[in-house]
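Hi L.,

You mentioned the student needs an example of a multi-chain input paired with its predicted structure. This one should do, with 222 residues in total across all chains.
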Amino acid sequence: EVQLVESGGDLIQPGGSLRLSCAASDFTVSSNYMSWVRQAPGKGPEWVSVIYRGGNTYYADSVKGRFTISRDNSKNTLYLQMNSLRTEDTAVYYCARWAYGDNDYFDYWGQGTLVTVSS
Amino acid sequence: DIQMTQSPSSLSASVGDRVTITCQTSEYIRNPLNWYQQKPGKAPRLLIYDSSNLQTGVPSRFSGSGSGTDFTFTISSLQPEDIATYYCQQFLTFGGGTKVAIK
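Structure written out for the whole complex:
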C-alpha cells in the first residue's frame, strides 16, 4: 500500500528555517511528479512546489526564492527546505503525488505536518 | 493565472437530499477538472477526475460534469458521512471550497 509520511513541522520564529521530509513506501519518489501542498487554517489547499521526474523544480510565487524542493533517491524521500519563514507560511504541509499529464490530479497524500510561524 | 470560483461557499441539506456544487473558471480550461473531499484533520481525497470520472472506490452517488468554464459536482443522495469540504482543482490551482453540513 502506498504511504507518504511527512515530518519536520514545528513552531518556528519569523525569519527562521525548517526542513520538511516526506518518506515514501511502496512508491518510488524519483519516478513521479511530487508536490508540496499547504493549507492555512480555515483555508483551501495551496500548491507550493513540484519536482518533476527529470529533476526540474517549480515554485509558487509566494515561496519562490525562499523554499527549495529536493529528493534523496537512496532514501526514497522528498524534502522541502523552508528559509526566511513568514507568519503567512503557517499551515499544514502535505506531500502529494501529482499525476501530471494523466488528468493532473493529486492522488496520493501524506497525513500532513504542521508548521507554525510565530514569535 | 486562472481563478477558480466555487459556489456556494457553504450549504446545509437534509440526509437524502441532492446537493450540487459549481466551480467556475476565469477562462476556458483544457486541463482536466478534478474534485476532492476533505474531512477535518485529514488530507484531501480525490473523488472525481477529468470532470466526470469516478475514482476507484468512490460511491456512485458522487458525480461530476461540465467543460470549458463551468463545472458541477453532485451528491445524488446526501449521507451523514458526506459531511466535509469539497474542492475543485485544475492543474496546480484549487478552488476555495464548499463546506457541506447536515440540516
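You could point out the following to them. The mean pLDDT of chain A is 97. DSSP finds no helices and eleven strands in chain A.

Best wishes,
N.
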